[in-house]
Amino acid sequence: MRDLRIGVVGVGMMGADHAERVARRISGARLVAVSDPDMDRAGALAATFGDVRAIDDPLALIGDADVDAVVIASPGFAHAEQLTACLEHAKPVLCEKPLTMDAESSLRVVEAEHKLGKQLIQVGFMRRFDPEYAALKELLDSGELGRTLLLHNVHRNRTVPATFRSEMIVRDSLVHEVDVARWLFGAEITRITVHAPRPSGLVGEGVQDPQLAVFEMANGAMADVEVFVNCQVGYEVRCEAVGEKGNATIGLGVDVLTRRAGHWGGVVPDDFRVRFGLAYDLELQRWVDAVAKGTIDGPAAWDGYAAAAVCTAGVRSLQEGRPVEVEMVPRSEVLG
Amino acid sequence: MRDLRIGVVGVGMMGADHAERVARRISGARLVAVSDPDMDRAGALAATFGDVRAIDDPLALIGDADVDAVVIASPGFAHAEQLTACLEHAKPVLCEKPLTMDAESSLRVVEAEHKLGKQLIQVGFMRRFDPEYAALKELLDSGELGRTLLLHNVHRNRTVPATFRSEMIVRDSLVHEVDVARWLFGAEITRITVHAPRPSGLVGEGVQDPQLAVFEMANGAMADVEVFVNCQVGYEVRCEAVGEKGNATIGLGVDVLTRRAGHWGGVVPDDFRVRFGLAYDLELQRWVDAVAKGTIDGPAAWDGYAAAAVCTAGVRSLQEGRPVEVEMVPRSEVLG
Amino acid sequence: MRDLRIGVVGVGMMGADHAERVARRISGARLVAVSDPDMDRAGALAATFGDVRAIDDPLALIGDADVDAVVIASPGFAHAEQLTACLEHAKPVLCEKPLTMDAESSLRVVEAEHKLGKQLIQVGFMRRFDPEYAALKELLDSGELGRTLLLHNVHRNRTVPATFRSEMIVRDSLVHEVDVARWLFGAEITRITVHAPRPSGLVGEGVQDPQLAVFEMANGAMADVEVFVNCQVGYEVRCEAVGEKGNATIGLGVDVLTRRAGHWGGVVPDDFRVRFGLAYDLELQRWVDAVAKGTIDGPAAWDGYAAAAVCTAGVRSLQEGRPVEVEMVPRSEVLG
Amino acid sequence: MRDLRIGVVGVGMMGADHAERVARRISGARLVAVSDPDMDRAGALAATFGDVRAIDDPLALIGDADVDAVVIASPGFAHAEQLTACLEHAKPVLCEKPLTMDAESSLRVVEAEHKLGKQLIQVGFMRRFDPEYAALKELLDSGELGRTLLLHNVHRNRTVPATFRSEMIVRDSLVHEVDVARWLFGAEITRITVHAPRPSGLVGEGVQDPQLAVFEMANGAMADVEVFVNCQVGYEVRCEAVGEKGNATIGLGVDVLTRRAGHWGGVVPDDFRVRFGLAYDLELQRWVDAVAKGTIDGPAAWDGYAAAAVCTAGVRSLQEGRPVEVEMVPRSEVLG
């Protein structure tokens, strides 16, 4: 199967990140083009990969015959036009949130795609792909905790630029928890209150940070969200779901922490493939990358020999019930 | 750059896992061949990928002109011959532990590779690639905790087959901590004691499980290891490193937990790329896989519209200091 | 100094608990009388202690010349009259919450005490005495986290009797967090919203459980509280305080968990008096209780001998660098 | 029942701590005398309590007719003589560890007590009274984890004085884990190895710190112990017990952490008496202490009024489904 040829529109922090992801870590895909109003930035990024074109006009990238699919990471105000172009060229597109800047223009995009009769647009609400959120969703859907009644969310950034105003905190930060609540509850939000507690003295004049939002869901359930984008600590995202029979929290750094029937805790993995699956992926990716450069990037044959020598002594210690010296040829004798 | 064409020798649990990894998750590599004494198993696995050959003879796979590099996941007793073949054909090889079955044959492999004048062999001590172990190594090497004096290790499997005898616990399980100790200390193990505490009543007659090993390192430091491969709980691997000025533990499910100067704790990530990096990788991999099938696998344009409608109401709530109803066109009106 | 002679009014669960506390665990105090409408219950409880009178009329207990101070643990509707009696007799009183059933009657109690010119009434908002809450208060007051902006509270009981109605959830449960917010912020609550999310299907018809309250403080800060008194799990009380420079959580079972400047974590105790202070208290209390009965309740001289024998062998092992057998006279030879 | 009159022998750090404990926190006991070679220190301490005598000669204190029971907190070399005196006067005694300085003298004490036909001596192995150790013991004895096979212990102090030599680390520190292993296993230690890993560079010349001890128990089980009394971090004491069906750890600051059948976790308390029992004890102790001085030390009537006012508004908010302003008389109008 031929690799999917991908073009990235907008190569600021997020877009550059996606470009590298496609180029170096995603299987079955190839980065072929990037586009940015700042052509120097686009050109410099393209050059780091080799065989990637920098294209001036994002619409040209979208229409290019050698681009199979598009990642949009441009500023939100540019999304409507670029999405429309993707639909016109029938190109699958992964669009960073927000879809567009307001509900009306978003609705027009939905309608245009619906007329095509084919889903081409995916929106970058990436929490659905985080293993912790995915496990929480699975747990809630299993019904083990009863119906979900409440969500408590925390969304904190260490700091944001002074240009990040109160409304952007809603549109660019809170929007993630809007999707989380809709997705976890499987219901729309019907009413929203965004409270304005006394703001931190460490943010710019007139910026309302933190904010405390309350969502009322179509099914009667509720969610609260603290958004605090200048919390000074670091990046903290947590979600606690409260069900009729128990509750579960993610974002504590311990996978899904559940509480039910007198116990709190988590899961011990079944086997090494769960615990070390990512380590195996990294091992192979780094080995493949190193082999492409004619080298290795990990434990060498000598390490295999040393381990064998220790295990041989270990088996003897076990059999004889005493400490055993490890016998090894000095490394310099073998490897010079 | 052309993808590295990889052949996998041995497609039991571990080998099949590696084959899928190469085929589906590793960028820059392509699975082209698998080999196994059980040709039915090899054939069935190859068929799941398409365009992958099942080759009878592992040495034929290793020598095949269309195989650039080899992953060896066959039983340990077959490694020596297969590694020798890799060296003869100058093929880079990632060999699952153990390198070979004893120190003497391992030494011969080391010497043969050394004669070639080029490192072709990497051994599958995969803990070095686990993000937690890697972070621990980095912390210890930074010197922040002073010199490392002691390691406490725990290595537990839920259960193993009854054929897994006392010596295999040393050679196949403890061997991981042998490498961990050598790697973290940067020193060889000079003496080993493997204690035999009273065995669990839940293991087969004559199997010594758990075992308690003590390593004495060339630099005078020490390590202890509990190996308990029928612990009934699940897969638990932990390592605590004790330095002159503090200590650090991994495997608790909370990344690196440190204790120093009156405090215990861990790190809050700097930004979303650290916390959600894996989520972004999964988002793109699943999007690429879905697009190849002509669909999407994630939040759709409608989800983008719904979020925009909620955020519009949220901004109004913030500005007007009151709850605001969310206005949305009913889904059925738009999408039918 | 003579022990304070205490009478307890109301010996339901809470009052019986307080009676036992005074009788057995509080130094400098003596339980002398209990009172309850159910004289059988009062009598039975008094009999378990010896030398404690059961008194029919709570006002008689309060007025009794041999009672120095009073603990009120009767139902809330009886508090106003009993508090008034305490004030009239100038008896110090510790009154379980609520002070009285409504704001108006509470205000009259405050005014009556104020007229006396002496504080005699303490209210049973016991969270202020919990070591975790006290440590949180100290941390917030230190200013290390900047000004406190938000509190997130969780207050859950496994279940409550069906007679516990929606209003009681506010008056008897939420009231604790009312005090916590006032105390931690050092400010009054000026506005309150109690939301009614969809109720759990496991509570009685018409009972609003859980509830989600939002407090707006006089200083502009805010607090939210989930109260869920039929959460099915157990008793969970948590409080997260969000400051301008960091945040701190209690109730996770790990003392105060803080997050600031890129780190999360807690405190490692300075020495054994912090870590084991409670163990020493319990050791001495149990020894005193046992000695009063002519026995001991802890490790005996034989345990001291056995430890000495092991340590003697341990010192030799350290000096000689080898395992050493422990030499002990068989227990039966010495103790028969 | 009359309070037990207690004398404390030796008022260094440990003895002074015990004296205060008896005087202020232990119910049913009264501190009547202290003794110390440094009479100034003894006198000063006695003076802080009032009505406590400072007695020059420890044997005089032990023999004093007004002393019912003795706490020995003198240096270990003085214990043998003082214990003998307690036995002669038939005084119950709680003796800090070690019982005596070596196995031989300890055995003589055991024999002397045995001849009396009555247990008068309790040894200060206080871990048995720590709620976490006690819960671990109860769990292991329940058989839920199967037979216990291994213990892993960690015992760390931040620093100790330079006079604390290698042998003292065994006799004064490791001795606690000697008792823990004997107590948890219910079996004697038959063989001990004390390993000497490379010492920390932060301890005095010639001091072996850390040490790594291995105990072999009469029942075949084993225990390892890291003792590191200059670990620089703080006071850390942990114990992990490994059973045939699961394992349990204490000392992580989260009570007993268990792992079994695919899950790790702990217990959510049944009710507030478990979670807040200590808070109630502290509330009453501080109230009693304050009342004795004619004051209160906790929330006042005003706090009860304020809470009532908020709850009244909260009930209305719940009933009317909207935010409600809290109505309170200004504090200054009532309290001036």
From TrEMBL, chains A, B, C, D:
* UniProt cross-references to SUPFAM superfamilies, sorted A to Z: Glyceraldehyde-3-phosphate dehydrogenase-like, C-terminal domain (SSF55347), NAD(P)-binding Rossmann-fold domains (SSF51735)
What is catalyzed by this enzyme?
A: myo-inositol + NAD(+) = scyllo-inosose + NADH + H(+)
Protein keywords: NAD, Oxidoreductase
Q: What class of enzyme is it?
A: oxidoreductase
Alphabetical list of Pfam families matching this protein? GFO_IDH_MocA, GFO_IDH_MocA_C3
What the entry lists under InterPro entries is as follows:
Gfo-Idh-MocA_inositol_DH, Gfo/Idh/MocA-like_OxRdtase_N, GFO_IDH_MocA-like_dom, MI/DCI_dehydrogenase, NAD(P)-bd_dom_sf
Q: Which GO terms describe its molecular function?
A: inositol 2-dehydrogenase (NAD+) activity; nucleotide binding
Could you tell me which residue ranges the Gfo/Idh/MocA-like oxidoreductase N-terminal domain spans? 4-124
**Domain GFO/IDH/MocA-like oxidoreductase: residue ranges:** 133-248
Biological process per Gene Ontology, one example term: inositol catabolic process
Q: Which domain of life is it from?
A: Bacteria
Q: What is its EC number?
A: 1.1.1.18
The record's similarity note reads: Belongs to the Gfo/Idh/MocA family.
Role: Involved in the oxidation of myo-inositol (MI) to 2-keto-myo-inositol (2KMI or 2-inosose).
The subunit field of the Swiss-Prot or TrEMBL record says: Homotetramer.
Descriptive protein name: Inositol 2-dehydrogenase
